[in-house]
Structures are given as structure tokens and as C-alpha cells.
Amino acid sequence: MLLDVRNMEKSDSHYIAKYFSNADPEYLKGMGVDKTKISEYEILKEKYVSELDKAPVYRQLYFLIWWLDTVPIGHCNIN
């Protein structure tokens, strides 16, 4: 098994958008996230891609993503 932690890439954006848009509201609430303030999948995905198009110093969001072999298993972000 190979564990890899790296910066999120554009090709990863759908994983994060899917995670937030499909999550149960109560689960998100437990993390302090208000589901009513989260955009729909396509809007989230485009937001992440547009952030990744910027130079790191100009980004409003920063993500790390964890992979186990070829499967994304987690992420963290700051904004």
C-alpha cells in the first residue's frame, strides 16, 4: 500500500465537490459546516478549478488530498 499526501490538482476537484455536495447535512453540521451555504456540485467544482488556475499566493483556498494507492481517502482545506 502506498500513502500519498499532496496538493490538490484540478483533476481532484470533483472528489472534493462531490464530498461536500453529497454529504448529509447533520454530518456537515457536526464539522461546523452549514449545508445551506454550500453551492451545488458543478458550482463547487468550478470554484475549485478556478482557484487552482491562480498562482498559489493569490488563492483564497488551499487543499491537501490523501491517496491510498489509487483511491482518494481524505482531504483538508483552509480558506
What topology, given as strand order, has the largest sheet? 1-2-3
Beta fraction? 25-35%
Q: What is the tally of beta strands?
A: 3
Structural class by sheet pairing and helices: alpha+beta
Distance between the termini: 31 Å
Shape: globular
Write the element-wise H/E pattern from the N-terminal end onward: EHHHEE
Overall pLDDT confidence: 93
The total count of helices amounts to 3
- Helix share, percent: 25-40%
> Biggest β-sheet, characterized?
3 strands, antiparallel
Description:
The chain is α+β, with helices and mostly antiparallel strands. 35% of the residues lie in helices and 25% in strands. The protein has helices spanning 13-22, 25-30, 41-52; strands spanning 3-7, 62-68, 71-78. A three-stranded antiparallel beta sheet has the order 1-2-3, with no helix packed on it. A hairpin with a 2-residue loop joins strand 2 and strand 3 (71-78). Helix 1 (13-22) runs antiparallel to helix 3. The longest helix has 12 residues, at 41-52. The chain starts with a strand and ends with a strand.
Topology, please?
Elements: E1 3-7, H1 13-22, H2 25-30, H3 41-52, E2 62-68, E3 71-78
Antiparallel strand pairs: 1-2, 2-3
List keywords for this structure.
three-stranded antiparallel sheet; 35% helix; 79 residues; alpha+beta; single chain; globular
Write a concise synopsis of the structure shown:
This protein is 35% helix and 25% strand. The protein has 79 residues and is an alpha+beta fold.
